[in-house]
């Protein structure tokens, strides 16, 4: 999803705290069998490169990003390339919620919270506020040849209640597996909803491919969350049967493209929607994406109940050199963001009976596994 925040370029990387080590130093982790290799920076605990092998055995970097990773901080239009997003991912209506949660806005008081808005002309908070977790310098805690762990302490940033301490661990292993886990504890009652905001192009902009419309998508979901013009949930669900949202059986992302006008907002063509998984087992694949051109396939399993799929209508960023840049840009529909997460704005939708409030004794855990394979 597009991040439209105004970026204060003079803000120190430490964000008012003691200066931490340079947040854009790369950490590389590789599976022992060479099937997958990934690079991360501390800023946002961000995945900057992900190399997997195509059907001819050639490694391709299948995620978007920058050659100069400091642009994760300085690019005013950066589209949230592959970080951990929090303290509350996706959207919050009017940047406001209360604890206990309510449907209607409550008068200001000790249990009513206002988070800076940064989207839809000030009517929405997106991805945790102007300086969410993707725009914070995480601390490198430990690393090994195949794993790296980062820590972030959110001391009531952006107006959220209490302090949340989070650890993000990224691990690669034999058989083409990348697993990311985030565990968080809270000092008092607070909403927590995280995601990893990965932009995929499984062709890596090679062989004449510039978009993901021919990528195949399968989502184990018979419902999509119904949203208004600001992409805020109405409280209802859409049955995908007979609609462009039906990916229960594999479809090319662009198969029903003429039917996707305004699905991702006014004037937008494509997808920016949240599917609610039908599956109950955490180990069961929820989303699969693959390309016939490269032969690369990724099967995604998660402990989260929903997935946001954004087909990058607003994307317009210079490419990495490995993707043909920098004179070329990642353009409209050049990638698809697939975000494992909870229900959009459940903290303002009590009729769902979805509990996203955490506190001492009730800890948060987000876990997603990406399994890569090839078809020839």
UniProtKB/TrEMBL annotation:
GO terms for biological process: galactose catabolic process via UDP-galactose, Leloir pathway; glucose metabolic process. InterPro entries: Aldose_1/G6P_1-epimerase, Gal_mutarotase_sf_dom, Galactose_mutarotase-like, GH-type_carb-bd. It comes from the Eukaryota. Keywords: Carbohydrate metabolism, Isomerase, Signal. GO terms for molecular function: aldose 1-epimerase activity; carbohydrate binding. CDD domains: galactose_mutarotase_like. Residues 1-18 form the signal peptide. The keyword Signal applies. Belongs to the aldose epimerase family. This is Galactose mutarotase-like protein. It comes from Collybia nuda.
């Amino acid at each position: 999803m597009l991040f439209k925040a105004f970026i204060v370029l003079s803000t120190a990387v430490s964000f008012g705290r003691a200066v931490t080590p340079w947040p854009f130093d790369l950490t590389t982790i590789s599976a022992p069998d060479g099937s997958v290799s990934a690079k991360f920076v501390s800023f946002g605990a961000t995945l900057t490169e992900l190399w997997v092998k195509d059907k001819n055995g050639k490694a391709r970097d299948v995620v978007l990003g920058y050659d100069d990773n400091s642009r994760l901080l300085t690019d005013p239009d950066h589209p949230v390339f592959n970080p951990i997003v929090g303290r509350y991912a996706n959207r919050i209506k009017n940047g406001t919620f209360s604890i206990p949660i309510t449907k209607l806005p409550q008068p200001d008081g000790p249990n009513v919270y206002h988070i800076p808005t940064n989207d839809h002309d000030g009517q929405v908070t997106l991805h945790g506020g102007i300086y969410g977790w993707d725009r914070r310098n995480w601390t490198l805690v430990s690393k090994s040849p195949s794993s790296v762990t980062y820590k972030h302490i959110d001391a009531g940033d952006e107006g959220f209640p209490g302090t949340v301490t989070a650890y993000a661990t990224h691990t690669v292993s034999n058989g083409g597996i990348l697993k990311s886990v985030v565990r968080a504890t809270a000092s008092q009652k607070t909403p927590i909803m995280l995601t990893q905001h990965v932009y995929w192009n499984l062709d890596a902009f090679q062989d004449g491919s510039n978009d993901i419309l021919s990528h195949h998508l399968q989502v184990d979901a018979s419902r999509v969350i119904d949203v208004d013009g600001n992409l805020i949930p109405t409280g209802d669900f859409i049955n995908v049967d007979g609609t462009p949202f039906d990916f229960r059986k594999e479809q090319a992302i662009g198969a029903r493209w003429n039917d996707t006008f305004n699905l991702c907002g006014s004037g937008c063509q494509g997808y920016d929607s949240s599917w609610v998984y039908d599956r109950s087992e955490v180990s069961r694949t929820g989303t699969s994406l693959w390309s016939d051109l490269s032969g690369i396939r990724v099967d995604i399993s998660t402990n989260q109940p929903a997935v946001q799929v954004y087909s990058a209508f607003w994307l317009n960023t210079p490419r990495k050199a490995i993707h043909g840049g920098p004179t070329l840009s990642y353009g409209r529909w050049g990638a698809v963001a697939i975000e494992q997460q909870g229900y959009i704005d459940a903290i303002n939708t009590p009729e769902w009976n979805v509990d996203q409030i955490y506190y001492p004794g009730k800890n948060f855990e987000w876990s997603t596994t990406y399994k890569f394979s090839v078809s020839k």
